[in-house]
Design goal:
The chain has one domain. The mean pLDDT is 83. The protein is 40% helix and 26% strand. The protein has 140 residues and is of the alpha+beta class. Helix 1 runs antiparallel to helix 2. The protein has a five-stranded antiparallel sheet.
């Protein structure tokens, strides 16, 4: 993947368990210049851990690596985490308002769908995880 089609972050290998590699992402000022920073929650968090499956075994604990995710996967994550819940809340709010509920009840009802949405996402996390594939390479 070239730089325009991938989202990259520097990190170091924290742990290796079989074919699973846990990488801790480093937060640094370069996030300010990144085009994807508005959609990326990594730029807002000091440290983030990512698990990379099917590691090749050529890495060592403590080694500096680049974590790579395709830009299209980044957009998919953005849709699942922010856009779909917003649309769901908006649709429930409109339906509740049109059905004659007062504004307070319509607002509370529309917000009450969020925990349900995120519980469903949590329940489907293994299926969703298969959709998002991170790769690593040795940092230059």
């Amino acid at each position: 993947m070239n730089g325009s089609q991938a989202i990259e972050h520097k990190g170091f290998i924290e742990r290796i368990n079989g074919d699973s590699i846990r990488v801790k992402i480093l937060s640094h000022p370069a996030c300010d210049a990144c085009q994807a920073k508005g959609a990326c929650s990594i730029s807002e968090i000091q440290h983030k851990e990512i698990e990379i499956l099917n590691g090749t075994g050529k890495y060592k604990t403590g080694e500096l690596v680049d974590v790579i995710m395709s830009q299209s996967q980044g957009y998919s994550a953005l849709l699942i985490a922010y856009v779909y819940p917003f649309i769901l809340v908006f649709l429930v709010l409109m339906a509740a308002t049109l059905s004659g509920l007062n504004e307070l009840m319509a607002g509370l009802l529309s917000l009450s769908v969020l925990p349900l949405y995120y519980l469903i996402i949590f329940a489907l996390r293994r299926k969703i995880r298969k959709k998002f594939v991170f790769s690593i390479r040795k940092a230059e």
